[in-house]
Write a structure and sequence with these properties.
Layout lengths: L2 H7 L7 H12 L3 H4 L1 H8 L1 H28 L6 H8 L2 H33 L7 E5 L2 E4 H20 L1 H29 L12 H9 L2 H5 L4 H4 L8 H29 L2 H5 L4 H10 L2 H35 L18 H13 L7 H30 L14 H19 L11 H18 L12 H12 L1
Antiparallel strand pairs: 1-2
Helix pairs in contact: 2-9, 2-13, 2-16, 4-5, 4-10, 4-13, 5-10, 5-13, 5-18, 5-19, 6-7, 6-18, 7-8, 7-16, 7-17, 7-18, 7-20, 8-9, 8-17, 9-13, 9-15, 9-16, 13-15, 15-16, 16-17, 18-19, 18-20
């Protein structure tokens, strides 16, 4: 690692092995497993949903291998920003960074909507003071304020420092794992194999309907590269944690599908308010246990929210540090050494989301996925370019060896991410509706404002960031 650069950045190196793994795994295990599992089972059946998760996890694992090598080679805050800048140059780097930041921001906003949705399950009368109706959902002030207050708290914790955020993450992930063990135990004592019927539903369309959610569900392993400058472990180990977090998340989603489907007949799950929570209660024969599962859902919200707010702020910070965004975003808190302006900006966006109602949950899931895939595709291309152009670059973790094995992983990642992106296009089985495309378009319209200010004509390479900064400073 470039020690001089790390010292000048001012980011504190305070995270250990489990802290980093908790950030990556916790980011992926958000709230989707609580509210979306019933839909997965209805769309694809038990084994259809499991197959989609295994295939999706496999795709993400291949992408994760490219991240693992690049993260170990370039352990700097910003992840994708640094990788693509070295291989493809400033403007492609901005596109990749803006894409993954858009994915992070949509999930941070998703969690701000998911929290009041969850709290309302426990306290049904909490929605008071009607404001307006969005897509048939009446938005109430008290409902929205739950999301707003949580956004303020999570942002404050992150401003206080990455170590504090890491401690919160570790504690909540442990609680989440306890809920997972209870799900497995409940399935053994109260589940029925016949409840898992139908094993497959809606053929290939059902499979794709679940598969398209994978980028949203698995985004988070790439938070580990974002925080690499703040992790106090060997670079090679950081890369390994990226892949391990994907494997653990795949196992989690498969477990949730199997245990939920074993709890109740498919018809009853389809009519459930929150299928996973109702299934958990049915496994133990207790309505109280449904609320315990919801507590696990809240834990998932907090882990994902915390991790992705951290990741998004480090990306925005890195873009600003390299001169691609206003320098205001690169300002570090004088006491806590965190990018507090970037944190407040993203936290502010999440505070707005609850005022658009519960329908925003689906729109945010769908709108962020194409941006996430764009970033993964560019990182996969970056992996191949650096293998060819810079074979002597120090790689503490070289996936697939030095020969054709590594190139095969890279090309597989390129093809899989490109194929995944096509699933969102009009005419495909899982084509997006106009609302997600509108959110997607607004984010990229905002990005265009900054993209055309990024200096052109600068070649990719290890000194590309310094060249961009020199041009930006000369303009002033």
């Amino acid at each position: 690692m470039n020690t001089t650069h790390a010292e000048s950045s001012g980011l504190a190196k305070t995270l250990g092995n489990f802290d980093a793994l908790a950030l990556g795994f916790g980011a992926m295990i958000g709230f989707g497993w609580v509210v979306l599992t019933g839909g997965w089972l209805e769309n694809a059946g038990t084994l259809g949903a499991v197959l989609a998760m295994v295939v999706g996890g496999g795709i993400m694992a291949v992408v994760g291998l490219t991240y693992a090598e690049l993260t170990a080679a370039m352990p700097k805050a910003g992840g994708e920003h640094n990788f693509i800048l070295r291989a493809l140059g400033p403007r492609p780097s901005f596109i990749g960074s803006w894409a993954i930041t858009g994915g992070y921001v949509t999930i941070v906003a998703f969690e701000a909507v998911a929290l009041p949705r969850t709290v309302e399950y426990i306290f049904p009368g909490m929605s008071q003071i009607p404001l307006w109706t969005v897509a048939g959902f009446e938005v109430n002030l008290t409902w929205a304020l739950v999301g707003v207050l949580a956004a303020i708290l999570i942002t404050w914790i992150n401003i206080r420092g990455v170590k504090q955020a890491g401690v919160v993450q570790t504690f909540v992930v442990i609680f989440l794992l306890v809920i997972g063990l209870l799900l497995i135990f409940g399935s053994f004592i109260g589940g029925e194999v016949q409840h898992m019927q139908p094993l497959f539903s809606n053929g290939i369309n059902g499979f794709f309907a679940v598969l398209v959610a994978v980028p949203f569900l698995f985004i988070g392993f790439d938070v580990i590269p974002q925080s690499a400058e703040e992790v106090n472990i060997p670079a090679r180990q950081i890369g390994k944690l990226v892949v391990l977090s994907v494997v653990l998340a795949t196992a989690w989603y498969v477990m949730v599908v199997l245990t939920t489907s074993s709890a109740m007949p498919a018809g009853e799950l389809a009519g459930a308010d929150i299928a996973t929570a109702d299934a958990f209660g049915a496994l133990f024969g207790s309505a109280l246990m449904s609320k315990v599962l919801i507590a696990g859902g809240v834990a998932g919200i907090l882990t994902s929210w915390n991790s992705l707010l951290l990741g998004a702020s480090r990306l925005v910070y890195s873009l600003a540090r390299s001169g691609m965004l206003p320098a205001w975003f690169a300002t570090l808190h004088p006491k806590y050494k965190t990018p507090h302006n970037a944190l407040m900006f993203i936290g502010g966006i999440s505070m707005l989301a609850p005022f658009f109602g519960v329908q925003m949950l689906g729109w945010l899931v769908d709108s962020g996925a194409p941006s996430i895939i764009i970033a993964y595709l560019l990182v996969s291309v970056t992996f191949l370019v650096l293998r060819k152009r810079d074979p002597q670059m120090v790689r503490p973790l070289r996936v697939g060896g030095a020969g054709i094995g590594g190139e095969l992983i890279g090309w597989t990642s390129v093809l899989l991410t490109a194929a995944l992106f096509t699933l969102y296009m009009p005419g495909m089985p899982a084509a997006l509706t106009w609302e997600p495309w509108l959110i997607f378009g607004v984010w990229w319209l905002l990005g265009a404002v900054f993209f055309f200010k990024v200096p052109g004509g600068i070649k990719a390479g290890p000194d590309a960031e310094e060249q961009v900064l020199a041009v930006v400073r000369a303009r002033k």
